[in-house]
């Protein structure tokens, strides 16, 4: 394979996991966001000299939480875009993309759970989008929290002008109370989603493209066997290395997903798969770079929205 390898390094800006908010006992407790305030500057500090085969810098796609849960907890669905405006301004200035990461939750017995009602999810997306418009943010790319999806969500995104959804996790499915999501048969390459099944390609022309997450087999210490997982560059290098090497050989697009809060060191926290160490992130990124060099392939850093023209009608043509 001689074609260029496109690499989209994306982040979902979720709140800090495993610590901080006492959301379980009080669903309205403020969420902690050290990942954004400290993790993102740390990432820039450690990656500023990384360039692709054409000398262009490593760019990121930041999918920023904006939804009904953020609105209930922080009084504004666009809280993160406003509170950390200086970070997003800097990001845009350097060529990063700011996309949208809505978690579609509802309160059930004082717990936040996945909303599975199409009509409600459509309403949440439409009203949040109105809030985004008020601060002049018109996202081109989106990823739904919990990699949830439905035909109604794709239709709504398309109506709102979102041109790239990157929620697909090929080979995986998940059940929720009242419904579920299935990416079992989703292609691993970008595709135009069918009107009747978001996980399948269609030959009709649509303005929205589904850009699946890259998946690799990983056996974490707590797994009995290998398991298809998304490529999170903050996973320990030893679990990701072989999968990354294979992807470089066989793909022409790698889409990674990480969370800024897992770049930050934790004193008391140990996790089998997540390193909480920026050095592991760099090591994993360097595998992609060195394998490209070894295999004589050029690689190009892109943001998710670039996929719209690079991979339009890719599967269907
Ligand atoms: Zn999320």
What does this structure look like?
The structure is a single chain. The protein is an alpha/beta fold. It has helices at about 35-45, 70-75, 80-85, 85-95, 120-135, 150-160, 235-250, 280-295, 305-310, and strands at about 5-15, 60-65, 95-100, 105-110, 110-115, 140, 165, 175, 180, 210, 215-220, 225-230, 255-260, 300. The protein has one domain: TIM Barrel. It contains 9 helices and 14 strands. The strands form 5 sheets. Strands 1, 2, 3, 13 and 14 form a 5-stranded parallel β-sheet that branches. The protein is globular and about 50 Å long. The mean pLDDT is about 95. Zinc ion binds next to loops.
Write the layout of secondary structure elements.
Layout (H helix, E strand, L loop, with lengths): L4 E9 L20 H14 L12 E6 L2 H7 L4 H5 L1 H10 L2 E5 L3 E4 L2 E4 L3 H17 L6 E2 L8 H10 L3 E2 L7 E4 L2 E4 L26 E2 L4 E4 L8 E4 L6 H14 L2 E6 L19 H17 L4 E3 L5 H4 L7
Parallel strand pairs: 1-2, 1-13, 1-14, 2-3, 6-7, 7-10
Antiparallel strand pairs: 4-5, 8-9, 11-12
The structure holds zinc ion.
């Amino acid at each position: 394979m001689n074609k260029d390898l496109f690499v989209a390094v994306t982040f979902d800006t979720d709140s800090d996991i495993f610590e901080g908010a006492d959301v379980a006992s009080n669903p309205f407790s403020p969420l902690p966001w050290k990942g954004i305030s400290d993790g993102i500057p740390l990432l820039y500090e450690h990656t500023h000299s990384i360039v692709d085969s054409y000398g262009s810098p490593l760019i990121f796609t930041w999918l920023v939480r904006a939804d009904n849960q953020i609105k209930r907890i922080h009084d504004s669905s666009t809280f993160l875009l406003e509170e950390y405006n200086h970070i997003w301004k800097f990001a845009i200035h350097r060529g990063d993309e700011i996309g949208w990461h809505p978690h579609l939750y509802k309160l059930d017995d004082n717990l936040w759970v996945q909303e599975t009602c199409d009509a409600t999810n459509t309403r949440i997306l439409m009203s949040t989008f109105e809030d985004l418009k008020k601060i002049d943010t018109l996202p081109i790319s989106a990823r739904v929290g919990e990699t949830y999806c439905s035909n109604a969500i794709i239709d709504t995104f398309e109506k709102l002008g979102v041109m790239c959804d990157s929620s697909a996790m090929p080979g995986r499915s998940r059940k929720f109370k009242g419904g579920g999501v299935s990416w079992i048969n989703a292609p691993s390459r970008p595709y135009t989603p069918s009107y009747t099944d978001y996980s399948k390609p269609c030959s009709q022309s649509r303005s929205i493209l589904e850009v699946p997450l890259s998946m690799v087999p990983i056996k974490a210490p707590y797994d009995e066997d290998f398991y298809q997982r998304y490529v999170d560059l903050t996973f320990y290098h030893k679990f990701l290395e072989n999968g990354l090497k294979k992807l470089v050989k066989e793909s022409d697009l790698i889409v990674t997903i990480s969370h800024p809060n897992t770049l930050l060191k934790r004193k008391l926290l140990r996790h089998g798969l997540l390193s909480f160490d920026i050095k592991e992130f760099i090591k994993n990124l360097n595998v992609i770079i060195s394998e490209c060099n070894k295999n004589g392939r050029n690689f190009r850093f892109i943001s998710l929205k670039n996929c719209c023209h690079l991979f339009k009608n890719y599967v269907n043509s």
